[in-house]
């Protein structure tokens, strides 16, 4: 198995020999070849430098069986808005999938950070930071993102490895820190490796996806038929039928967009996480463009570019989907209404088979 890891100082192994950091010990336990791309001080961010998206861009996961991401403790202590971190996590996971759809993804959710004490009180996962959100809020949001992108996540809270009570032995700074000792790194590595083995992550004898080029020269990633056949209990396609609403004015653009996208994602067995905007601006435009592009990616993953026949013998595809990039609001509304018609028809036919 080949594993690539991304993260901050916890995975980088600050304060311990590199042979004793968590990724190295995971590799030793699993007998895996591990490349550790973690950098001290990193966090969930789409900015350049050392953060999550830059780590993936600079160290692509192409050819790796499993990517493990460990970010978040620095986001809590030096916080941005939670929605900005959600966006960064989504973009980072999406980048991994685009580099290689066959790489399994595991989020190691951020562990307890005892560096930020609330007065003289024992630090709690519910303590709010300067942006008004807690470590629990961050962890729960990252679980939503993982579910949205069909990534796995290790939620250590169900069986904590490092606690305030054992921090003296498990953390280099004791009850005022976050960086594992060799003992703490070993315990973390053992728990993560067990999760990987139990979930059989990165252990595909047949790759789930393959690259296919059409007669017209269009190359796309599609589901591998051999992998589908290999599954002893294939997941039954949902039978959800959807009715999408047309957008009639700019005032209802975001509201109807979020409602329709939520219905579409539910029918595809994904979770859509909507954003809200007070005004239509560059942020809302980028949100719509990125959401439609991500939906196209998910449709490719789930259906592999195949078409269906409706009851009248007419071919149904998603070929006509438009990414609404116009600067004119009325054109955006028109393009989206075209997309709703295509998507409603395609999903309802696909889910009726």
TrEMBL record:
| Residues in SGNH hydrolase-type esterase domain copies | 6-185
Q: Which domain of life is it from?
A: Bacteria
What Pfam family is a match for this entry?
Answer: Lipase_GDSL_2
Supply the name of the protein.
SGNH hydrolase-type esterase domain-containing protein
Name its species. Limosilactobacillus equigenerosi DSM 18793 = JCM 14505
